[in-house]
Amino acid sequence: MTAGRPPVWYESEARSWRSTKVDAVAVAARCARVRTRSIKNESKDTLLRLALSMVDLTTLEGMDSPDKVKALVQKAKHPFPERSDIPSCAAVCVYPNMVPFAREAIGNSTVKLAAVATAFPSGLSPLPLKLEEVRQTVAMGADEIDMVIDRGAFLSGRWQQVFEEIVATKEACGPAHLKVILETGELGTLDNIAAASRLAIAAGADFIKTSTGKVQPAATMEVTLVMFEAIREHYLATGKRIGMKPAGGIRQSKPALHYLVLLAETLGSDWMNPDLFRFGASALVNDLLRQIVRRDEGNYPSPRRFSVD
Fold first, then answer.
1. Which domains, and CATH codes, for the chain?
2. Fewest CB atoms less than 10 Å from the CB: which of 7, 57, 69, 284?
3. Which residues are catalytic?
4. Distances from the Cα of 275 to the Cαs of 62, 218, 241, 264, in angstroms?
């Protein structure tokens, strides 16, 4: 437990989180309205480029290799080498043992290096092992750590255990930013997602993130809205801005732009940048590039003009 947050504080907050209910009908209705928005002309051009600059380009597969990671970094730095005006992606996200290779390839570019940790994707390892993994990953050069919560502990009511693990992980991160993955597809209800979001923020998360990408359903607009509202609530109470990352299942430009509309309408323009919003959606990059080039050149480009991850 962090200094200034005694058990009495935690228990009172936890009771409040458990008693808060999400109006699922209102959430669904609002998301349905956002999905009808038509974004055109200069606004669309601006948002397509902004969305590209917010992507965490990710490879988290058993067949990952140093060469694959280095190629991913090059794509993050220069998503479309034919065009110098196309922005780079926000970050690359890899397994811890790939961090040294990614760090070397990133060099002095603006692309951040994120790594998954804490027994990703299950979160089911002893806490000392999780914390040592975090410390070693940061020492190898990670700028950001994406941790997973123990969903079994959360769902069985051991909220304080989850809270304290996040606190300890944040401390182990040192200078690195901490993204806390809720794995919303396993939490079951919007009420649980709202509570887990508040818990993660209170424990020190710099970002809250929907999913590992290994469980379905992953990111949805309804889940994202609930998490936005937890962030907004915290900002109004403390003045501190927390970031958000929907991850998994966002593959096309149109829904990605609708996520940005929802972001702007819920949290405002201050969150419309890669420091506070990311997409965990590698498959999204080529569709964004295709839409950007089509708007500039007048025709859809061949898919062969873009590298395949």
1. 7-305 (3.20.20.70)
2. 7
3. 146, 209, 245
4. 29, 22, 10, 15
